[in-house]
Amino acid sequence: MIPYRCALITDSCCDLPREIVDRYGIEVLPFSFTIDGVEHLDELGDSLSHAAFYAAMRTGSEPTTAQVPMTSYVEAFRRVARAGTPAVLLSFTAALSGTFDSSLLARDTVLAEYPDAEIHIVDTFSASTAQALIVLEAGRLHAEGATAAEIVEWAIASRRLINGYFTLETLEHLRRGGRISDIAAAAGAMLDVRPVLKLSREGALVIDKAVRGRKKSMRAVADIFAQRSLGSENRTVVVAHADVADDALALGVMLRERADIGEIVTIDVGPVIGTHTGPGMLAVVFWGQEREA
Fold first, then answer.
1. Alpha helices per DSSP H over the chain
2. 22: how many CB neighbours lie within 10 A of its CB?
3. Is the entire prediction scored with pTM above 0.90?
4. Which of 19, 121, 196, 201 is the most exposed place for a label (fewest CB within 10 A)?
5. Cα four-point dihedral sign 224, 228, 233, 239
6. Are strands 38-41 and 7-11 parallel, antiparallel or unpaired?
């Protein structure tokens, strides 16, 4: 039994596999999603497989998502406060969801009941597998016996060094989410444009560049990795995909051709992020140069 010195909490948009969160003693609070009229908790693929979710999307289903409710945060914080255990929440970026603000309100609620409770909340400035990388490394510190204060200090110092770059199969799901216009989506479809997106300094999702064709977009992401990664031979690199495992393997090969990589962790992107990217999303997340604006 690992002698944890604090509670480490995150949300299901980290998209980490169940085996990893269990290994490092990480509590995951679920977002929810609705597909074909049925509401599900995002339980990292436990109750509805990612393959089944994307199969439904490919046949026309249009899912919707909902953030972690404030009550879930209150329950988690109240539980650690009662136990007298310090807690650290590593949250999905506030730039893309209101769940961070909900967690702050929940902490205020619990501190009114337990004023001596130690509850830290960190905006990771990251989403999906970029969030996964910072939570994974924090989990390793957690298992090594780091205190809550040590994990918080490390996370704040490290969060802008996590680089996340994504490419999509289609612009349609971004259009539905209001991130691009109907005209831009239609033009992109006609020209076979594949956007490469990145996380900004504050965790917003912005278009970095656009290229034509799937293979070119994959090479563009691999080239960005080669330009921006630092010390990749000693650090974990994450390759993530939304129901395109073969492309993820091919992207991993491209990365290894460009750098000496010690470890690649491959992650299946879950339904909450997948709702907004659609099937076919590919991502590479790595430690690198500090994020630009």
1. 18-23, 50-58, 70-83, 99-113, 128-143, 148-158, 172-176, 182-191, 214-228, 245-258, 271-277
2. 12
3. yes
4. 19
5. negative
6. unpaired
DSSP state of 14: G
Mean pLDDT of 57-77: 96
Integer Cα distance of 61 and 95 in angstroms? 27
Write down the residue that tokens 């007298």 correspond to. Answer: 84
Q: In what order do the strands lie in the sheet with 193-199?
A: 205-212, 193-199, 162-167, 282-287, 236-241, 263-268
CB 73 within 8 A of CB 29: yes
Task: Write the secondary structure of 245-281 as one string of H (helix), E (strand) and C (coil).
Answer: HHHHHHHHHHHHHHCCCCEEEEEECCHHHHHHHCCCC
User: pLDDT digits over 93-112, tens only?
Assistant: 999 999 999 999 999 999 99
In the chain, the domains with their CATH numbers are 7-160 (3.40.50.10170), 161-287 (3.30.1180.10)
What's the rounded Cα separation, in Å, for the pair 180 and 271?
Answer: 21
Return the CA Rg of the chain: 19
CB burial of residue 165 (10 Å; 0-12, 13-18, 19+): buried
Helix (H, G, I), strand (E, B) or coil at 149: helix
Instruction: Confirm if 155 and 126 have CB atoms less than 8 A apart.
Output: no
State residue 184's pLDDT score. Answer: 46
Tell me if residue 97 falls in helix, strand or coil: coil
Report the percent of the chain where pLDDT is more than 90: 79
Query: Residue 45 and residue 111: Cα distance in Å, rounded?
Result: 33
How crowded is the C-beta side of 51, counted as CA atoms within 13 Å?
Answer: 1
- CB proximity list for 239: less than 8 A, separation 6 or greater: 248, 251, 252, 255, 264, 265, 266, 267, 282, 283, 284
